[in-house]
Amino acid sequence: MPELPEVETVRIQLWSKLKGKTVSGAKIFHPKSVAGETAFARKLKGRKLQEIDRIGKLLIFKFVNTTDLYLLGHLKMTGQFFVTDKTGKLVGGGGHTLSTETKELPDRHTRVSISFEDGTILYFNDMRLFGYLKLTDYAGMEMAKSRFGPEPISVDFDVKYFLTGLAKRGTSIKAALLDQTFIAGLGNIYVDEALFRAKILPHRLAKTLNKKEAMSLAKHAGKVMKEAILLGGTTFQHFADTDGTKGGFKDKLKVFGRQGQECVRCKSIIVKTRVAGRGTHFCPSCQK
Ligand SMILES: [Zn+2]
């Protein structure tokens, strides 16, 4: 599953290649990927991209002078976007790193392609078919957005909301941070990293955090994600160049995937266990 920094990186990538372009057509290779929409191409044709927005891990494609049509995109477990220019050359995109190499597009994992008037084509590949490109109206877009809580990277992130929310929760702090309706965008990797930096144990009950700890956690969650965005995420591959560069944040991980190794802070051995149903990494000495 991608996390916010990965999706934000993809958003920036796609926008740099698709900015202001007008849709000329679309092809559906698998109906599930467009939620069975039969008029996908007809509805999109002639629409000019105004913005690619994002909330949590959901991408929202917006069009000029259009308030009745939005395109929602989610990469889920195996989604990938590829952009080719008018000569068919791969010029951008991003998504999950998969063992199967994509050489020519469309390929057997291509589910949707959207072409633009200048010959650019956006391909949506999704091996396991959990992702989607879904057309919706204004109400549908607003409803999709309303399912997400605030993001710790937003400048107006409300620490008071965070504190009162934690106090009401009977779950572990890790489960609370993974709940996208409470806080949007944090997934398994960045939750472990944020808790490590804030020196809080992942299995602590959310409501036992004091104000100082909660503020420190909010600060570190935001910082971890901003750093990861700058480095292009952790788990994703970007397809801008032919050999593909991988997310650079992998080298900055302080606790995730470091089980059995020494803690960078106190030299204790990092432990891996399961919390909230997810593989969870922490230092048993300096996280409290
Ligand atoms: Zn430690």
Structure in words:
The structure is a single chain. With 288 residues, this protein is an alpha+beta fold. The chain has 2 domains: 4-146, MutM-like, N-terminal (N-terminal domain of MutM-like DNA repair proteins, Alpha-Beta Barrel); 159-241 and 251-282, Helicase, Ruva Protein, domain 3 (Orthogonal Bundle). It is built from 7 helices and 13 strands. The protein has helices at 4-18, 40-44, 138-146, 159-167, 173-178, 188-197, 211-230, and strands at 23-28, 49-55, 58-63, 70-74, 79-84, 90-96, 110-116, 121-126, 132-136, 236-238, 245-246, 271-275, 278-282. A 7-stranded antiparallel beta sheet has the order 1-7-8-5-6-10-11. It has a 4-stranded antiparallel beta sheet with strand order 2-3-4-9. It has a two-stranded antiparallel sheet with strand order 12-13. A hairpin with a 6-residue loop joins strand 3 (58-63) and strand 4 (70-74). The two termini are 28 Å apart. The model has no long low-confidence stretch (mean pLDDT 91). Bound molecules: zinc ion (ZN).
What's the gist of this structure?
With 288 residues, this protein is of the alpha+beta class.
Low-confidence runs (pLDDT<50, min 5 residues)? Answer: none
Q: In which range does the helix fraction lie? A: 25-40%
CATH architecture call of the largest domain: Alpha-Beta Barrel
Mean pLDDT: 91
Give the distinct bound molecules. zinc ion
Radius of gyration computed on alpha carbons? 20 Å
Shape: globular
- Indicate the structural class: alpha+beta
Query: How many domains make up the coordinates?
Result: 2
Relevant CATH superfamily of the largest domain: MutM-like, N-terminal
The count of DSSP E runs of length 2 or more, i.e. the number of strands, is 13
Strand order of the largest sheet: 1-7-8-5-6-10-11
And the CATH topology of the largest domain? N-terminal domain of MutM-like DNA repair proteins
Characterize the main sheet. 7 strands, antiparallel
Range of strand content = 15-25%
The SSE order reads HEHEEEEEEEEHHHHHEEEE
Q: Kindly provide the name of the CATH class of the largest domain.
A: Alpha Beta
